[in-house]
């Protein structure tokens, strides 16, 4: 399962934006490792450097120095729509009659092809098959007839799907979140300006203060030279559709989303996991690093109550928390290994059990998800080979039964082990002594949301957007493209 993209935008008072953008992209590197880029504007012209690779590889001093201007946007990308080549690397930049545009997109449109066909018929020439270029062209067209705010509103009325955008229009920087707020985007205040970023960890990196999340359907326009920001609530939806996997998996644990520290959310999910499906074993251990916060919360809760929900006796310490699997930090993440054989080898390279923690013990292994089941199978086998008497798996999220169309590279339905297997069948397939997942109600409860305000598409098979061939969990429809969605008075 792969993170999608990270976006950032800054407007500063008299200081070049390139270096702060570069540091912010470093803070967002976990959200995309395929390409990185920065677009700035110096009041006269736009500057851009975009290339394939990690932030540290894409940018050297010689690349940052020419990026003049105190306003700009940045992007790290893992490809989710469009080809895996430099034509889809972002920010996407374009110059047109009324100025220049830069666009960074996190998410995925579900009606990009329809809009591309329509614009192509009007003479727009596309250089990539990505959906970001579609948004840029649509916005550029609207900017020929409308002011900036109305042009963005018109484009928002036409595109359907998941998006958190940072946009530069000449030296003005904007941030937009789709009406259901599927992907995160927040505003931060810096010593000499403002920043928009996918996660608050990027704001921390620049010694800034988190102001708040950008609201679903909101356009935020950063003031020139870092002077404040304006807010426009352009579109309202009845419900939000926040991706619950941001809290469970994608976001950095030190980021704050919806006023909650991601690390704390994960610990609380772990506590709930104990309450729902705790099992008394000698030791609880996380799959590093993904299961750590869940295991910590799970083990904490296990010191207070028994697996039956009774208060523990004073002389009963409950379940011991231990790090039983050591991670080799110099091995790449398994998801960049394209074949099954390579993925299997990667698990053995990445994790090594500590024999004294495992041998002769009953073990609960905690992780945040099971996608194909390959890693879980290998970990259970590793622990048993190391002398574990029993291995029980607990997962801090519900079963992933369906793919994601909102920008997560999650494997196909056929590859997802839970798409056609019951929990019992998965337990047998990974050879665990028991297996339990957290319920969707528990996720909603811990995140403090109604179920309908979360996207649960990959764990229910019902999506918050109108996706061809799939079920929806709410009353949503693709916009029709056969005419402007706004009247002249809107
Ligand atoms: S389908 Fe799953 S991963 Fe995709 S946006 Fe919804 S909750 Fe997130």
From TrEMBL:
InterPro entries to which the protein is assigned, alphabetical: GATase_2_dom, Ntn_hydrolases_N, PRTase-like, PRTase_dom, PurF, PurF_N
Enzyme class: transferase
Keywords linked to the UniProt accession: 4Fe-4S, Glutamine amidotransferase, Glycosyltransferase, Iron, Iron-sulfur, Magnesium, Metal-binding, Purine biosynthesis, Transferase
EC identifiers of the protein: 2.4.2.14
SUPFAM superfamilies with a match to the protein in the record: N-terminal nucleophile aminohydrolases (Ntn hydrolases), PRTase-like
Binding positions ([4Fe-4S] cluster): 243, 404, 455, 458
Catalytic function, reaction form: 5-phospho-beta-D-ribosylamine + L-glutamate + diphosphate = 5-phospho-alpha-D-ribose 1-diphosphate + L-glutamine + H2O
Pfam families: GATase_6 (PF13522), Pribosyltran (PF00156)
Function: Catalyzes the formation of phosphoribosylamine from phosphoribosylpyrophosphate (PRPP) and glutamine.
Protein name from the UniProt record: Amidophosphoribosyltransferase
The species this protein was found in: Natrialba taiwanensis DSM 12281
Gene: purF
């Amino acid at each position: 399962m792969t993170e999608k993209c990270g976006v950032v935008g800054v407007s500063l008072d008299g200081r070049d934006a390139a270096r702060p953008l570069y540091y912010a992209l470093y803070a967002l590197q976990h959200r995309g490792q395929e390409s990185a880029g920065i677009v700035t504007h110096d009041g006269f012209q736009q500057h851009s450097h975009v290339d394939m690779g990690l932030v540290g590889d894409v940018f050297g001093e010689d690349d940052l120095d020419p990026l003049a201007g105190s306003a700009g946007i940045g992007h790290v990308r893992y490809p989710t729509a469009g080809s895996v080549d430099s034509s889809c690397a972002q920010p996407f930049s374009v110059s047109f009659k009324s100025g220049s545009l830069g666009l960074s997109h996190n998410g995925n449109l579900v009606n990009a092809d329809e809009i591309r066909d329509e614009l192509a018929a009007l003479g727009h020439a596309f250089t990539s098959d990505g959906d970001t270029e579609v948004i840029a062209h649509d916005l550029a067209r609207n900017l020929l007839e409308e002011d900036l705010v109305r042009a963005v509103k018109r484009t928002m009325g036409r595109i359907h799907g998941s998006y958190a955008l940072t946009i530069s229009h000449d030296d003005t920087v904007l941030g937009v979140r789709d009406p259901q707020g599927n992907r995160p985007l927040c505003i931060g205040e810096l010593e000499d300006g403002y920043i928009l970023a996918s996660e608050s960890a990027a704001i921390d990196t620049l010694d800034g203060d988190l102001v708040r999340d950008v609201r679903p359907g909101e356009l935020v326009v950063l003031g020139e030279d870092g002077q404040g920001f304006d807010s426009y609530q352009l579109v309202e939806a009845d419900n939000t559709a926040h991706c619950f996997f941001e809290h469970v998996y994608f976001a950095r644990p030190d980021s704050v989303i919806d006023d909650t520290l991601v690390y704390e959310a994960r610990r609380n999910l772990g506590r709930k996991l104990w309450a729902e499906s705790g099992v008394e074993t000698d030791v609880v251990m996380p799959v590093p690093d993904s299961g750590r916060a869940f295991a910590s919360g799970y083990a904490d809760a296990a010191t207070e109550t028994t697996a039956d929900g009774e208060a523990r006796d004073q002389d009963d310490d409950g379940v011991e928390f231990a790090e039983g699997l050591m991670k080799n930090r110099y091995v790449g993440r398994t998801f960049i290994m394209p074949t099954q054989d390579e993925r299997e080898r990667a698990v053995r390279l990445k994790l090594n059990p500590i024999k004294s923690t495992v041998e002769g013990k009953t073990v609960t292994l905690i992780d945040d998800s099971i996608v194909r089941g390959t890693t879980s199978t290998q970990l259970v086998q590793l622990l048993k080979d190391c002398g574990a008497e029993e291995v029980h798996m607990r997962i801090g999220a519900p079963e992933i039964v369906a793919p994601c169309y909102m920008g997560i590279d999650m494997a196909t339905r056929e590859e997802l082990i839970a798409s056609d297997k019951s929990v019992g069948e998965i337990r047998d397939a990974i050879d665990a002594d028991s297996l339990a997942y957290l319920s969707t109600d528990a996720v909603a409860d811990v995140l403090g949301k109604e179920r309908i305000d979360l996207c649960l598409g990959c764990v229910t098979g019902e999506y918050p957007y109108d996706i061809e061939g799939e079920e929806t969990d709410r009353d949503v429809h693709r916009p029709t493209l056969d005419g402007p969605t706004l009247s002249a008075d809107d």
